[in-house]
Write a structure and sequence with these properties.
Layout: H1 2-6, E1 15-16, H2 34-45, E2 56-58, E3 61-64
Parallel strand pairs: 1-2
Antiparallel strand pairs: 2-3
Length: 65
């Protein structure tokens, strides 16, 4: 709903799942490093104005609309 409301303003609205990461919350058995978890977050935060909006992403892949 927020992505639809922002459409045409130049603001992109997306959400991201960093996955199970080796952090204090994820624990030492998690398969991904904190850097791997942060990758999609940084990628979405630095998208060009023509980037996707209204999606849910993990590992730079859209997993839901």
């Amino acid at each position: 709903m927020v992505a639809d409301a922002a459409r045409g303003t130049g603001v992109l609205v997306n959400s991201v799942c960093p996955g199970w990461c080796r952090t204090a919350l994820g624990g030492p058995e998690a398969p991904s490093s904190p850097q791997q978890g942060a990758d999609s977050i940084v990628w979405l935060a630095t998208l060009p104005p023509s980037g996707p909006t209204g999606g849910f992403f993990r590992d730079r892949q859209r997993i839901a609309w």
